[in-house]
Amino acid sequence: MKAAVLERITNIRDHPRPLSFMEIPEPEPGEGQILVKVSVCGVCHTELDEIEGRTPPSSFPFILGHQIVGIVEKRGARATKFSEGRRVGIGWIGSACGTCQYCRGGMENLCPDFKATGRDLPGGYAQYVAVLEDFAFPVPDTFSDAQAAPLLCAGAIGWRSLRLAGLSDGEPLGLTGFGASAHLVLQLARFLYPHSKISVFARSEHERRFALALGAGWVGDTSEKSPEKLAAVIDTTPAWKPVACALENLAPGGRLLINAIRKEEADKDQLLKLDYPLHLWQEKEIKSVANVARRDIAEFLDLAAKIPILPDVEEYAFFDANRALAELKAGQIRGAKVLKIE
Fold it and tell me: I need a surface site. Which of 33, 203, 259, 304 has the fewest CB within 10 A?
């Protein structure tokens, strides 16, 4: 099969073609696994974290990609959940132990044996992928393959972030950064909290206009003050400065949710500098959002189909994967980027 393979850690700004295209053996599904013929795979900022070594793959060479949509082509022993020909989606969570205290408590995203698709297990930047059937999901007919891909990660982690925010209808919400995840959270929040005003903070004027078109009540630069103090802010940026800016905009008792697998290393002038009275006083909270559980993906796919939420998608040919990643690194973002695997 054809695959786009990461062979080493690299700085994508210096080496804008980090993936090599090669022919490798097609995988065989093991016990409890299905073989999926990949149709599309979303491009996520986490891939940049992997390429640049902030959360590196478990080995090299390695196949990235964790927003996968495709068709079940073959079933391994004891795999009975999906029939051949069924369309399925696969997200970041590739496996968990199922027996630890976190798994038993419904928090398998914190399992010490958590394995991520496209980081610990081979991903979807390839024509085929073998995955555990218990970590694959039926894709609602509402969505095309390309529309479904970002729902599996950007949407699911956004839903987890919004749920952890503990927002009540009418309480103001902030979103800092406006890429694949935030543009889905905005649509979800408008549906779930119709009386809540949503403020969006983004460096790019293009992203701010996009947020207004999707129903944001106010938009501004990352460092601007929102018109009112916010009950919660969800940060989806790779940088540290927006964390301090978001804390300034929180109301007393407000909560900041940091939705990022990793933050990029900062220059000295961009390091996180907190002033206790300004940023943390009055019982403000900071909470990280770690991975996703299967519940997050299943619930969000169902919600997105009912609303419906249709992601704004930029499609790229498979052999343009490096270009898509370079544009993502450069901040050239509108909605979600998706590779068409051929």
Answer: 203
Q: What angle do CA 162, 40, 63 make, to 5 degrees?
A: 90
From residue 321, how far is each of 20, 64, 199, 318, 328 by CA, in Å?
A: 10, 11, 32, 6, 11
**What is the C-alpha to C-alpha distance for residues 335 and 215, in angstroms, rounded to an integer?**
14
CA distances from 258 to 36, 103, 164, 169, 300 (A): 32, 22, 11, 21, 19
Q: What is the mean pLDDT of residues 307-316?
A: 95
pLDDT band (50, 70, 90) for residue 268:
low
Is the whole-model pTM more than 0.90? yes
Q: Span 119-147, mean pLDDT?
A: 98
CB of 115 within 8 A of CB of 94? yes
Q: Where do the domains of the chain lie, and which CATH numbers do they carry?
A: 2-139+312-340 (3.90.180.10), 156-288 (3.40.50.720)
User: Mean pLDDT over residues 301-311, rounded?
Assistant: 96
Interior/surface letters 223-235, b for 16+ CB within 10 angstroms, e for the rest: eeebeeebbbbbb
Per-residue model confidence as pLDDT tens digits over 37-80: 999 999 999 999 999 999 999 999 999 999 999 999 999 999 99
pLDDT per residue over 175-185, tens digit each?
999 999 999 99
Question: Which stretches within the chain are classed as H helix?
Answer: 45-51, 101-104, 145-150, 156-165, 180-192, 205-213, 241-249, 294-306, 321-329
